[in-house]
Amino acid sequence: MAGPERFPSWVDGRLVAPGEPALPADDAGLLLGLSVFDTLLLEGGWRYFEREHLARLREGCAALSIRWPLPWDPRAALDELCAVLERRDAALRITVTRGAPGGGPALVVTARAIDRPADPGVKVAVSSFVKHAGDPLEHVKSTNRMRNVLAREEALSLGAWEALIPTEEGDLSEGTLCNLFAVTGGKLVTPEESRGCLAGIVRETLLEDLAREPIGPDLVVGRIEPRDLREAQEVFLTNTTGRIVPVVEVMGLAGGLPGSRGAVVGELRERWARIEAADRARGLPRP
Q1: Which among 178, 220, 272, 278 would be 20 to 30 A from 18, CA to CA?
Q2: Per-residue model confidence (pLDDT) at position 287
């Protein structure tokens, strides 16, 4: 059985074939986890929300004291890798490491096939792994992903597509690779960042758009408790490659959710299509 398609990578100024060694063994990103990353959606030849992703990457570098500007231009690296992808759709991951002792940061750009959840939606499970909501590192998109990886593997073993991570207080913060939303009690609720969630680009863009043009349910950025999901009319996730991912079941809490047939999900998907059109229309900044 064939494995997933493998793409070339861009590493420190050169294109690298799949599987070819590219970073020194003493890179601090490898040995100590001192590295950050961001993932862009490449679709139809367009890299969505590149400005926002690169801005968050720079913020992550500052949080981990990784020197900026980098020795290489991330946009130029993306251009070079996209040129060899020949207009294939992909998730593009930019990783910046602290580098080897005595050297500068390393820049790695990789590509992978896009995981597109099918309608009407996905199942999610509440994880046995927890996070401390007040930990400031929860807001850094670093490569320290062990808890998230193990939580998602746990969810997959249960037949779910994603895991929801609770805080030490029991409220639900986010997924392992998604932000969480629920329509419950007549409100559209998403956890605030103080609950330990990482501010995703789709989440932030949607919140800004909803602040300008509200929809039916009142928007609340606060807490989502398990009981809120038991009583929810709709639940959905957001991330860069899945955009708005409807949920049909929160295992052990809520079944029979409408998924993509939900009124709020339907309206937000239409709105997101307009937001993406506006992103394409503004073009990419160039030197």
Answers
A1: 178
A2: 44
DSSP for 71-96 reads SS-HHHHHHHHHHHHTT--EEEEEEE
Instruction: Give me 35's structure tokens.
Output: 């590295």
Beta bridge partners of residue 124, listed in sequence order: 162, 250
How is domain 9-112 classified at the architecture level of CATH?
Answer: 2-Layer Sandwich (3.30)
Q: Are strands 234-239 and 179-184 parallel, antiparallel or unpaired?
A: antiparallel
Strand order in the sheet with 162-166: 172-175, 162-166, 122-126, 243-251, 234-239, 179-184, 187-191, 218-222
pLDDT at 5: 84
d(CA 182, CA 162): 15
CA distance linking residue 127 with residue 175, whole number of Å: 9
**What's the confidence (pLDDT) of residue 226?**
98
Average pLDDT over residues 261-278: 98
Residue 237 has what pLDDT? 98
14's CB contacts (< 8 A; 6+ apart) are: none
Tell me the Ramachandran region of residue 128: left when phi exceeds 0, alpha when psi lies from -120 to 50, beta otherwise.
alpha
- Listed by start position, the domains of the chain span 9-112, 122-277
Q: Is the pLDDT of residue 208 over 90?
A: yes
* Four-way CATH pick for 122-277: 3.40.50.10090, 3.90.650.10, 3.90.1150.10, 3.20.10.10: 3.20.10.10
Cα–Cα distance for residue pair 234/259, rounded to 1 Å: 7
User: Which residue bears the tokens 């939900």?
Assistant: 262
Q: Is 87 exposed, middle or buried (0-12, 13-18, 19+ CB in 10 A)?
A: exposed
